[in-house]
């Protein structure tokens, strides 16, 4: 059992999501930084799809009601155990009664806490992820909440230390399905501007501050399907990158789409960060997702 002493600004249970539910109006959701979530689980011998805690900007404090092994990945570079600082991205043993605290990271946004055995809460539509847009899944964590832990399901891995991923200031993109709704100047602005991450940042999307992108067509677009990483341009002309809790349909044109390999990096963008969107050639034989 893990006890949440303080959830910080936001703490949610996440796994790898609930694919295949778009017909019900439900996005996949799941961990915003899937690579970090998988890594946390691998470091302590969990299946990569085990539920973890996703926390934003630190502040999470938990207590071990029994001895547990945990791992912290993502934006976190350090963790405090009973007042003593340790490095993240490695297995950590928590004795009974020990308190673990995540300080605010210097860069990045999301950190992940995995416990050996995984958090054994009830799944909703096959997932233990909280979808902030649809309101599905386990509720946001709160103080004094007790989280059950499952039995270990796999052997310990052969690796007990991983390098934190450096923050990326560049996302690779491909033209979107409505690229032709924008002028050539708009596309040039998109790929040459040093954008700034705006204050509107959450699991639904990341809004960028910079020049407005002029459209070549001004008629209304019927609602059409959306995916994670779609770069939609609302009426004000400022691009919005959709995240894991994106709506499944939208009525504004999608000028570009973030490459699948770069989607996890969007989870670590925080307000004020500089960002460039670059058009690169796709290697032969690869797919977007």
User: What is the count of DSSP helices, taking H or I runs of 4+ residues?
Assistant: 3
Structural class: mainly beta
What portion of residues belong to β-strands? 25-35%
Contiguous runs where pLDDT drops below 50 for at least 5 residues: none
Widest sheet, order of strands: 12-19-16-17-14-13-20
Helix content: under 10%
Largest sheet: 7 strands, mixed, barrel
Provide the gyration radius in Å.
20 Å
**What is the approximate shape?**
elongated
Main CATH class of the largest domain: Mainly Beta
| Average pLDDT | 93
Indicate the multimeric state. single chain
CATH architecture of the largest domain: Sandwich
What is the total number of structural domains?
A: 2
Compute the number of strand runs: 20
Descriptive overview:
This protein is mainly beta. The chain folds into two domains: 2-147, Sandwich (Jelly Rolls); 170-279, Cyclophilin (Beta Barrel), CATH 2.40.100.10. It has helices spanning 34-43, 184-192, 263-266, and strands at 2-6, 11-14, 52-56, 61-64, 68-74, 78-81, 84-87, 91-94, 99-101, 110-115, 145-147, 170-175, 195-201, 205-209, 224-225, 230-232, 240-242, 249-250, 254-258, 274-279. The protein has a seven-stranded mixed barrel. The chain has a six-stranded antiparallel β-sheet with strand order 7-6-9-4-1-11, with no helix packed on it. The chain has a five-stranded antiparallel β-sheet with strand order 2-3-10-5-8, covered by helices on one side. Strand 6 (78-81) and strand 7 form a beta hairpin. The radius of gyration is 20 Å and the shape is elongated.
């Amino acid at each position: 059992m893990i006890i949440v002493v303080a959830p910080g600004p936001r703490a949610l249970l996440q796994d790898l999501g609930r694919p295949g539910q778009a017909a019900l109006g439900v996005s996949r959701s799941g961990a915003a930084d899937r690579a970090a979530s998988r890594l946390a689980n691998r470091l302590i011998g969990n299946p990569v799809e085990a539920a973890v805690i996703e926390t934003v900007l630190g502040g999470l404090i938990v207590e071990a009601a029994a001895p547990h092994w945990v791992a912290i990945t993502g934006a976190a570079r350090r963790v405090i155990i009973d007042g003593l600082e340790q490095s993240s991205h490695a297995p950590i043993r928590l004795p009974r009664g020990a308190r673990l605290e995540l300080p605010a990271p210097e860069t990045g946004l999301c950190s992940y806490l995995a416990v050996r055995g995984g958090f054994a809460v009830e799944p909703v539509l096959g997932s233990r992820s909280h979808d902030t847009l649809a309101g599905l899944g386990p509720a946001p964590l709160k103080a004094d909440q007790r989280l059950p832990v499952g039995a270990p399901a796999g052997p310990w891995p052969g690796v007990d230390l991983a390098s934190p991923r450096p923050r990326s200031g560049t996302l690779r993109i491909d033209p979107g399905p409505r690229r032709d709704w924008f002028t050539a100047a708009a596309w040039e602005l998109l790929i040459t501007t040093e954008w700034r991450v705006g204050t509107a940042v959450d699991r639904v999307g990341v809004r960028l501050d910079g020049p407005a992108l002029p459209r070549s067509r001004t008629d209304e677009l019927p609602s059409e399907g959306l995916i994670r990483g779609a770069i939609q341009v609302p009426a004000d002309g400022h691009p919005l990158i959709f995240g894991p809790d994106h709506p499944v349909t939208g009525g504004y044109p999608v000028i570009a789409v973030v490459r699948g390999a770069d989607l996890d990096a969007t989870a670590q963008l925080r307000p004020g960060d500089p960002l460039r969107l670059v058009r690169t050639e796709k290697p032969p034989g690869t797919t977007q997702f």
